[in-house]
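Support request, please re-run this one:
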Amino acid sequence: VQLVESGGGWAQAGGSLRLSCAASGFSFDDYCIGWIRQAPGKEREGVSCISSSDRRTYYADSVKGRFTISSDSAKNTVYLRMNSLKPEDTAVYYCAVYIGPISTIPPANEFDFWGRGTQVTVSS
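Re-run finished. Output below.
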């Protein structure tokens, strides 16, 4: 399994960024693919996930209404559009896969596969 993130960088508060995750090397019946972030000195936090079975999307309360997850099956790529960025969104963002059905974003430590991460920095 290979997950390669891109699109991180710097933005001012109120700005936007789009992250991409190119996924390859796996074929599971039921999984979610999404984004986990870790800010300095904080625990990893599940940000968003999209289910392979019904394409349902899930968001952490902290990003609802600001972030949008989407996928392009033809490109095997998942995106995270981040709008109205806040300084507290500063973190390393990881693309990750959880194998199995979900009804909410699973705990970060239960995800099965991870990318290397991409840094997002939001300045006030």
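The mean pLDDT is 96. The longest strand covers residues 91-99.
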